[in-house]
Amino acid sequence: MSGAFLDNDASLGVSRALGDEETGHSPAHRRGELTEVLDLKLDRATWEAPSHPKVEVMGFEACRDFFIASPTSPVGEAFE
Questions:
Q1: Which CATH number fits domain 2-79: 3.50.50.60, 3.40.50.300, 3.40.630.30, 3.90.1010.10?
Q2: Nearest Cα residue to 39 out of 55, 23, 62, 50
Q3: pLDDT tens digits for range 38-80
């Protein structure tokens, strides 16, 4: 699951190019103002498809905590 502000065309373009699908909209605060985020999801089958470009992640350990869902998150078990 990911998301991007509706006016962030660059981020949305990358997500769509990777195969993310829109799942809805969520309210979010940015710089003290209420706005919307487009919610996105990339399913495992799309990610593992042979046409998907190879992706190498570097420096993940340094920011690992930012990517791990909390124990109360509905997807928390997926990261354990």
A1: 3.40.630.30
A2: 23
A3: 999 998 888 887 776 777 888 888 887 877 665 555 544 444 4
